[in-house]
């Protein structure tokens, strides 16, 4: 089977041989398409900043699992983050650690046990004041913001992170961070990105085929 039977040839050609092999290991077409589109979008976003061909960008992960890109000679480092939900794929790139997350409203259930487990006390107070439908949507927004912060910082205790405001509050390792919502994915989805301040951030969002 050829990978470009399922995805656009320009996406497929942006991947390295190892990435193409990894894509072909996916049993389900939807998973394969999301992987290829996400990796191609990541490579094209980074390559554009360095005027390189997408396939030659060196992509790795640091000990925290964050995407790290090895820069060409005499170029500064770039960090990146990738997320996908439904038909949407989002990529963020910056010269500092960054996190991005996209979630569908229906994919995150705002049950009381989960709220108590992952939300700060202030977030829990806000959620208790909301009717059930707005509560579910707002919880998805908080969840998406927290995922973006976790990806950016490597901090694994979401209940200690308060993302009810743009400036992240909580543990010392997150106090320099901000998290922002983005409406690029439209109704039914939440998209958020997190980075230390101040920072210049490039965000790309596409709908996968």
Write the layout of secondary structure elements.
Elements: H1 9-14, H2 17-24, H3 29-50, E1 58-61, E2 67-70, E3 78-85, E4 88-94, E5 99-104, H4 112-118, H5 121-128, H6 132-153, E6 177-182, E7 189-196, E8 202-207
Antiparallel strand pairs: 1-2, 2-3, 3-4, 4-8, 5-7, 6-7
Helix pairs in contact: 2-3
Helix content range of the residues, please?
A: 25-40%
> Biggest β-sheet: count, sense, barrel?
5 strands, antiparallel
Low-confidence stretches: 1-5
Number of helices: 6
* Assembly of the depicted chains: single chain
What's the pLDDT, averaged over the residues?
Answer: 86
Notable characteristics:
alpha+beta, three-stranded antiparallel sheet
Can you tell me about this structure?
This protein is an alpha+beta fold. The chain has a single domain (3-207), classed as 4'-phosphopantetheinyl transferase domain (Ribosomal Protein L22, Chain A, Alpha-Beta Complex), CATH 3.90.470.20. The protein has 6 helices and 8 strands. A hairpin with a 2-residue loop joins strand 3 and strand 4 (88-94). Helix 2 runs antiparallel to helix 3 (29-50). It is globular, with a radius of gyration of 18 Å. 37% of the residues are buried. Mean pLDDT is 86; it is low at 1-5.
How is this structure best summarized?
Helices cover 35% and strands 23% of the residues.
